[in-house]
Amino acid sequence: MIVTLSQGAEVSAVRRELTRLGLWVASVETTQVGDVHVVIGPASTRVDLALVRSVAGVASVSEPTPQHPRVDAQGAAVQIGDLTIAPHSPVVIAGPCCVESEAQIMRIAESLSASGVKLLRGGAFKPRTSPYSFQGHGREALLWLRRAADATKMSVVTEVLSEHDVGAVSEHAEMLQVGSRNMHNYALLKAVGKAQKPVLLKRSMAATVEEWLLAAEYLLNAGAATVIFCERGIRTFDDSTRNLLDLGAVALLSHVHKLPVIVDPSHATGRRDLIVPLAYAALAAGAAGVMIEVHDDPGNAVSDGAQALAPSQVAAIQASLRGALS
Ligand code: PEP
Ligand code: MN
């Protein structure tokens, strides 16, 4: 809130009165044209604006309209079935880039579940850069994912690429993923929100944090149960890693906005040898978990084999991430 004083008003008297009302004065600034602005800090008590306007020496009061009120009100903890996602109880989401066959997803799910992983990922609809690359097994793969998750008591997280598939994906998944390429697809965000499920919203490779928050507002405004933010790296001039993992944004969302953030070191770096160090860094920055691509034959993976860990490596990560916070 910004309180503008009338010409000649005594700053200390107004300040005293505002403090008496429960407002915390963060700063007093004089503009180039001589107006005095009293900036009220965010930790202040909520006070009726009419009461503030009635204080002697106050000319006007303005309160910026919040841009993403539903996101601001959401909170940091998210419930997926009986699993809580929040900082200090980090989760691991793991699975292949692409669901390649029923046998493949079943094998990987069994191994991950034995390691304590509760959230199974895998692409049924794949957003490939080239139209000639494999596009995923689609609805059939949703069934395979569901069967693998049911057999291993896991929950499914999978990407929905098109408005037409929101119904089918929500039928088979506990959490809907909006991919990086679709963060700006507002028609899709509205359709996904209407499914009233938790959504994993990946940051577009060229989105500001504010655009990311506003995309989440679209989802919540349309009815999404909750939004979990997934930082997966942004584009920069440097191509020594696939993308640049923006840990500053992770800390900002977690510590300042108090929102749940998952970090995806696989897509952020494109290399399996950087997954473990960046998983630790993610948790140190305030992430509520990591999403890791896993493949049991990465050399022959249909997509993203170079950034996939073996299923057997996930148990150690799961245990050490828990240990890192205790
Ligand atoms: C994915 O997680 O399967 C994926 C395609 O990632 P992104 O949208 O971040 O590129
Ligand atoms: Mn991938």
Short description:
The protein is an alpha/beta fold and 326 residues long. It has helices spanning 11-20, 49-53, 69-74, 102-114, 139-152, 166-172, 186-194, 209-222, 247-256, 265-269, 275-284, 311-325, and strands spanning 2-5, 25-30, 36-40, 58-62, 78-80, 83-85, 91-95, 119-121, 155-159, 175-178, 198-202, 226-231, 261-263, 289-293.
Give descriptors for this structure:
single chain, 326 residues, alpha/beta, TIM Barrel, 8-stranded parallel beta barrel, 12 helices, 19% strand, elongated, binds manganese (II) ion
Instruction: Specify the helix fraction band.
Output: 25-40%
CATH architecture of the largest domain: Alpha-Beta Barrel
State mean pLDDT (0 to 100 scale).
94
N-to-C CA distance: 39 Å
Describe the structure.
By secondary structure, the protein is α/β, with parallel strands linked by helices. Helices cover 36% and strands 19% of the residues. The strands form three sheets. An eight-stranded parallel β-barrel has the order 7-8-9-10-11-12-13-14, surrounded by eight helices. A four-stranded antiparallel sheet has the order 2-3-1-4. Helix 8 links the parallel strand 11 and strand 12. The longest helix has 15 residues. The chain is elongated, with a radius of gyration of 23 Å. Bound molecules: phosphoenolpyruvate and manganese (II) ion. Manganese (II) ion binds next to loops.
Secondary structure elements and pairings:
Blueprint (H helix, E strand, L loop, with lengths): L1 E4 L5 H10 L4 E6 L5 E5 L8 H5 L4 E5 L6 H6 L3 E3 L2 E3 L5 E5 L6 H13 L4 E3 L17 H14 L2 E5 L6 H7 L2 E4 L7 H9 L3 E5 L6 H14 L3 E6 L15 H10 L4 E3 L1 H5 L5 H10 L4 E5 L17 H15 L1
Parallel strand pairs: 7-8, 7-14, 8-9, 9-10, 10-11, 11-12, 12-13, 13-14
Antiparallel strand pairs: 1-3, 1-4, 2-3, 5-6
Helix pairs in contact: 4-5, 4-12, 7-8, 11-12
